[in-house]
Specification:
This protein is α+β, with helices and mostly antiparallel strands. It folds into two domains: 124 residues, PAS domain (Beta-Lactamase), CATH 3.30.450.20; 136 residues, Alpha-Beta Plaits (2-Layer Sandwich). 35% of the residues lie in helices and 31% in strands. The chain is built from nine helices and ten strands. The strands form two sheets. A six-stranded antiparallel beta sheet has the order 2-1-6-5-4-3. Strands 8-9-7-10 form a four-stranded antiparallel beta sheet. α7 packs across α8.
Length: 285
């Protein structure tokens, strides 16, 4: 394939700093550059030229290799469709991440498919660490308000707002250390009640938000009942702690949706039958 390219491009293709693979219209590999060849030879001596990706997988050319797409983006550039991916590649105990760009082009009147990959493992891991630390509430270990603002809502995004009742009494009579412990314990209960796919967020203070992609708002009451049962079972020393909640589907605007849910939460708070003053003994010094 290199022979079909103008001479001044040949050194670029061979010595391209990333990983470069070219396939023909039958999707058979016709060229790999030096960097990719050296990378492949670390794991196998089999020649890749003439093989398709499917054949490489079927023949288990690199038996311990596992590849999955982390995210994918399609774009149209100069009437040529290009596909950009970040993929995760597991080889034995080693996990690497590659930024992969694939595009179609014409060389000497023939169509070829180029795949260019760059190892971004260090950058990817740094980004993931940054995202994790910037989107996680330090006290509760739940997502924080920044996560909420960056969430990609859909019409099926069901948002639940939970407010702890009487939480101020804990801080006032038992101290803020006990209050922090209660927040941590309640956060753990929320994680146990909701699915791993649901997003559990500490909205601020003693308020929490759960986002679940569900069409069934009726399931909320069942979750709330389960949460109430867990609180009564595990919060013996804080039997006066309860919660109020409101829920609704995303309504195209987060502020508008949260205002609606907030009203429902306060309606729930007011509708409770047990409205009485609670006497709490001061914490022992």
């Amino acid at each position: 394939m290199v022979d079909k390219v103008d001479g001044y491009l040949t050194p670029f293709l061979v010595n391209f700093p990333g990983l470069l693979c070219v396939r023909d219209t039958e999707h058979r590999i016709v060229f790999i550059n030096n960097r990719l060849e050296q990378w492949v030879e670390t794991y196998t001596k089999t020649c890749l030229i003439g093989k398709t990706y499917n054949e490489l997988v079927a023949e288990r050319i690199i038996p311990t290799c596992s590849i999955k797409r982390v995210y994918h983006h399609l774009s149209i550039v100069q009437d040529t469709q290009s596909s950009s991916n970040v993929i995760e590649c597991q080889l034995g105990d080693t996990t690497s991440y590659f930024d992969v760009v694939e595009f179609e082009t014409q060389v000497g009147g023939n169509t070829f498919y180029y795949m260019i990959a760059k190892d971004i493992t260090d950058l990817y891991c740094e980004k993931e660490l940054y995202l994790k630390t910037s989107l996680i509430d330090e006290l509760s270990g739940l997502y924080n308000k920044r996560f909420l603002k960056n969430y990609h809502f859909t019409a099926q995004s069901l948002i639940i707002l939970i407010d702890l009742d009487n939480f101020k009494l804990v801080n006032d009579h038992y101290g803020h250390v006990k209050g922090d412990e209660l927040i941590q314990r309640f956060s753990a209960l929320l994680r146990s009640v909701f699915r791993s796919d649901d997003s559990v967020i500490r909205y601020g203070g003693d308020e929490f938000i759960i986002i679940t992609e569900s069409n069934y708002i009726s399931a909320v009451d069942k979750r709330m009942l389960l949460l109430k049962q867990k609180i009564s079972h595990e919060f013996d020393e804080f039997s006066f702690i309860t919660f109020s909640y409101g829920a609704d589907f995303y309504q195209s605007d987060l502020v508008k949706t949260m205002n609606s849910i907030d009203k429902k939460m306060y309606e729930n708070k007011k509708s409770k039958l047990k409205r009485q003053y609670i006497t709490v003994s001061p914490a022992e010094k």
